[in-house]
Backbone:
């Protein structure tokens, strides 16, 4: 039965791992989770934990149109994923007229970096990490000059977006992107917590309480 408390507890255990769930109060802040791998035009295997961009785009459109929602909190724990899908999400977040705050928990890697900096203000947990590296393609790649030109243009899009929306210069970001010796089998840089703030990528070290408090500040959306 739908109203059977025992059945409801069993469903909670199966879905959430516990039988009693907190009842959140109504909120005017929409929470958007970017977790696992960002899935774009190619469907990933079912064992992969993914964030599907076709699920995220309608949510962002609804946030903009719903007058009851006055702010957006983006929580990231992502390894990255599809570059075009990630940039599309970042551009939509950036274009919202309502206040936005991001919080990197665990990791905001690869194309997760533009999403993290797309908000009005960004936080990173003290132990969270961000990996910055050049654009890569997996699978069959045609080795012709046009392929490399396409990769360069796509990489420029990422660099330009990050540098327009964070306190880091283009030269400094590219230096992090092409640094050698830090990653075992690749080039790039891993920034942990306060290092991401010191580099100018993220605004502050903080957690959920600080992110929610920032959204509740009586300020309008900043102008860039």
Residues:
């Amino acid at each position: 039965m739908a109203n059977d408390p025992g059945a409801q507890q069993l469903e909670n255990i199966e879905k959430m791992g516990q039988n009693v769930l907190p009842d959140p109060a109504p909120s005017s802040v929409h929470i958007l989770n970017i977790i696992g791998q960002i899935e774009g035009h190619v469907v990933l295997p079912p064992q992969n934990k993914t964030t599907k961009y076709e699920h995220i785009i309608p949510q962002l459109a609804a946030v903009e149109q719903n007058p009851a929602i006055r702010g957006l909190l983006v929580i990231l724990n992502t390894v990255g994923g599809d570059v075009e899908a990630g940039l599309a999400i970042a551009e939509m977040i950036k274009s919202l007229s309502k206040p936005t705050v991001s919080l990197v928990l665990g990791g905001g890697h690869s194309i997760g970096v533009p999403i993290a900096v797309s908000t009005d203000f960004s936080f990173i947990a003290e132990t969270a990490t961000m990996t910055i590296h050049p654009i890569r393609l997996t699978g069959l790649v045609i080795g012709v000059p046009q392929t490399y030109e396409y990769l360069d243009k796509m990489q420029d899009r990422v660099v330009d977006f990050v540098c327009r929306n964070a306190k880091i210069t283009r030269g400094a970001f590219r230096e992090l992107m092409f640094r050698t010796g830090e990653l075992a089998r690749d080039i790039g840089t891993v920034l942990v917590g306060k290092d991401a703030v010191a580099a100018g990528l993220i605004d502050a070290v903080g957690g959920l309480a600080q992110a929610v408090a920032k959204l509740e500040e009586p300020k309008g959306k900043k102008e860039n």
About this structure: The chain has one domain: 29-37+47-216. Helices lie at 5-16, 53-65, 83-95, 112-117, 145-165, 170-177, 194-198, 208-216. The chain has eight helices and eight strands. The domain at 29-37+47-216 is CATH 3.90.226.10 (2-enoyl-CoA Hydratase; Chain A, domain 1).
